[in-house]
Amino acid sequence: MTRPGTIYEAIGGFDTIDKIVTEFYKRVGNHPTLTPIFPDDLTWTAQKQSWFLTQFFGGPQLYNENRGHPMLRRRHLPFEITPERKDAWLECMDAALEEAEIEEPYRTAIFEKLTMTAHHMMNTP
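Now predict its structure.
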């Protein structure tokens, strides 16, 4: 169930999340800083990201339903997430938000939430 007044609802729900994720992984799959920590086939990774972003921005609890609690930091510990990789990840996400035509104030709100999350994921100097 989608809660009214959420970012998820305001940006257009599933279709917009799908566009963001598609554009994001087009960039991740070609980014020399990120490809070493991502699988060659990004299909499953993109699916999990779609579930996560849907839930993170107030939509249905798809990630919890399909994967359990996100436990993001723990799930990302096997991967070396350096400040450079965090920045590259955010660069790809910023471009994806642009491509998906996310308007203000939602674009800034989304990017701020994802920036805080990205900082939390860093685990390697």
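The mean pLDDT is 96.
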